[in-house]
## 1
Amino acid sequence: MKERMIVLANVSKAFGDIKAVDGLNFHVNKGEILGLLGPNGSGKTTTIRLINGVIFPDEGEIKVLGLDTVKDGNEIRSTTGVVTESAGLYENMTAQANLEFFGRIYGLSNQDLSGRINRLLGQFGLEDRRNSKVSRFSTGMKKRLSIARALLHKPEILFLDEPTTGLDPESSRDVLTYIKRLNREEGITILVCTHNLPEAEGLCNRYIFLDSGRIIEQGRLEDMIEKYTTSVQMEIQFSGTLGDTLSGASSYELKPSGRVLVTLEDRKQVPKFLRRLANKVDIYSVNMLNNNLEQLYFEVRRAFYEKTGNGGHN
Amino acid sequence: MRRRAMAAIIKKDIRAVSDNVQIWLPIIIVPLVFTVVLPIVIILLTKYQSPAGSSAWELPMKLLDKMPMGSMQDEINSFPTLQQKVIFIGLNYIFLPLFLLIPAMVSSTVAANSFVGEKERKTMETLLYSPISEVDLFISKVLAPFITSMAVTVVCFIIYGIVVNLFTYDIFQGVIFPRPNWYLTAFLLSPAVSVLSIFFNVYISARVKGFQEAYQLGAMVVLPILAIFYSQLMGVFFLSNVMIVLISLIFFAASALLILSTGKSFNRNKLFESQIK
Ligand SMILES: Nc1ncnc2c1ncn2[C@@H]1O[C@H](COP(=O)(O)OP(=O)(O)OP(=O)(O)O)[C@@H](O)[C@H]1O
Ligand SMILES: [Mg+2]
């Protein structure tokens, strides 16, 4: 069995009347990237705070590396790194000064620190800006510095709260590349909260869907897609005469420039359908439309609301 | 290791103020006015204005009438001329409470910045995600304004001494500053004022939304100082050595009460639940 880095057992936390987290049970395995998904206010940030022991659960128990978050908070925090929604950097200080400051807070020796800072600044492409004040940084640079900051003490677990919000596509891609590389090369376990589903899809190994502090679904993308989508939707680009090749589809719709949108009742029909089609026409591309995370997200939420009778977005 | 983390926080909190002109300019101007400009004005007024009917003479003379008998009277009466008496009362007694505005304002500004400013800029959150103990963090955040305030106070004490002695030397044919009551002011009452104003800021930091509000509310620490100033002018009491020690003790006691009632709210859990969004 894989080593479990984080285990939550029946964890609840309320702020006044609001149940921010309500009976959470899940674990995070060593070396995985877990995506925590859910609408605003579903309890993602609260979950990160609970796991890091900066707030305590009303009920339940959280273990990080076998340590209890209520009793051993500081020990846990010395093995975790958190990138908060706001960058959390000192704007009046330079990149270098920020890293030096946090390095001292984490108890790094001067020797370790200067080597570590050089490496991280290089890794995150901030070497030539090390002596600029953070207030002059772009949002993307701040985010990268913020991640570098969270990695100073070589944490075993990294928490990323909406790491790409507010970034342009290029900066987002850079940040995602860094995150993936960290996970691949250094084996860091990562828990990431995000609203950007296409990004999450390329990043995470496993997902947890939250709603009002509760888990409404969890698992690997393939498994959840199998569970939630029986029918398949695809967009096919072709040239030639279709004839009766589309008769196996439950519905289809012809689109301009040689494309057709096809819905099949069951994903098991896909191979046979495509084989038959390929015999008749030239196929240039097949685009699966409802097997991505974004589609799944809405499926999961729709199913949840049907089950609970809850009318929709809260 | 703990020491290093604490030193880093203190250094950073002091730099946050020294890097920001809008914050440190008022900190510099107020002491400058009270230690250089005002004393010089008073001294020059007594030099070039005749005693009769002049406002510069009025207050110290009234005060002289109300002086308690004994050593304080003797001290004043040891100066032969009226001008000497007036200058001595003005610079040694009337100015003393005004000097306290320096530690009060400096520590209040730095404390507002280090407690509320850090929350407002959302760096407190990052800091609390680190493994630093709350006690270490609290002590560092109290020491930053205290050290700044005491450094400014001592520098001002020296400047005031130089200005006073320089401008009165020809009048007294000697050095009149500092007397024991000023040593007590600089090294006992000023620290007491600093501590009180820092702890008052900790108290309000849990209740305000932003730095500006904290800064304005924090200015309330000048009230007891103004009370002392007017009490002395009205002749309620004089800032004798005993009185200075007594006031210091009262300030320290008030600080202790403040911190006993709010120190507990400086804790990760409470900060995250009620103050960090
Ligand atoms: N310190 C707090 N005091 C009061 N209510 C809080 C506090 N922190 C969180 N909440 C409430 O708990 C709920 C969950 O908040 P949380 O910040 O965990 O959501 P989130 O999933 O991170 O949302 P977002 O996507 O907007 O970041 C919300 O209703 C929020 O208003
Ligand atoms: Mg959040």
## 2
Amino acid sequence: MHELSLLLALAEQVQAEAQRHGAIRVLAVELRIGSLAGVDADALAFAFPLAMAGTAAADARLHITWLPAIARCRRCGHRFGVAGGVGPCPRCHRHGADLLQGRDLHLHSLTLDP
Amino acid sequence: MCSDGDRRGGALKGGSGLRTLTLQRSLLAHNQTLAADLRRRFAALSLPVVNLLASPGAGKTALLEALARRCGGEGVAVIVGDLATDLDARRLRQAGLTAVALTTGQACHLDAAMVQRGLEHLDLGSLQLLVIENVGNLVCPAAFDLGEGRRLVLLSVTEGEDKPLKYPALFQSADLVAISKSDLAAAAGFDAALARQHLQQVAPQAAVVSVSARTGEGMAALAAALGLSADRGR
Ligand SMILES: Nc1nc2c(ncn2[C@@H]2O[C@H](COP(=O)(O)OP(=O)(O)OP(=O)(O)O)[C@@H](O)[C@H]2O)c(=O)[nH]1
Ligand SMILES: [Mg+2]
Ligand SMILES: [Zn+2]
């Protein structure tokens, strides 16, 4: 898995934002991650301090908000929750739904000091 | 994913010395920017670019060798990601293709920056097709746009019919799925109809072909789908 490489990219973004806004420290980093994004919570938690070492976020707390996967039926427009693969629509039973949410890998917010 | 750049500044709020900066930016923003640059560059040359993805040993390199045997390797280049060796690149060159090896070390996927480095070794203007053979992996490469025009995903008959259900993200991103090693289907007890049903469920957008690099079955259809003709370069 590539949690560490994702977090190294995150560290660059976080460091750039801290500098741009004149913050000395970043106290918290909030990520929003889709349940189908293919990243593992434990691996993220483990790699986070390693990736942030030497940046303004070296001591930051990591918050992860997990976003459930949601698909919309192309046929009837019904929205439904998805676990694993996108299966048939529970309302009209047809295949072919688009994933609206679930692969997200977002840096949502930073808490800056000052 | 949100595009980067549009919300560069972010929204700041807070008193008491602490501020919350809301960014809503993709962690992959940098890769997406580079991939968009690559895509523009390929489009300016009208160069078709295929990202070839599959599990380790599914037959990615063998398929490209077979294509080269069928169509000749002229005008076709491959950028190949390999963890520790340049064995695949050597096989591809042996088959008459132009090949650039990206030794990825521990990386589990190729990213747009690696492809950009690989391009330094190619004369893109002389090419009719560029294939990027990704690192063998059904999970990580799915998230990384390489600026390709199309994604070709292999499902080898020895892996089982259930892989599209177990690794939906990759199959959902496919434009074309090739069921590979079809010569081994009987020996592996592979149920082709079931595999196609699973692909239809997970990846209804993808065209599906059945191919064997060994016997050449389906190679004509695949070559045509990739825009190569059998007598090209002869
Ligand atoms: N019978 C049969 N064997 C095949 C076919 N395609 C590939 N193989 C064999 O499968 C093995 C793996 O093939 P490769 O082409 O190296 O697979 P790959 O996907 O490029 O592997 P990595 O790059 O290491 O992930 C080799 O032993 C090939 O000879 C096929 O169509 N039929
Ligand atoms: Mg290979
Ligand atoms: Zn429906």
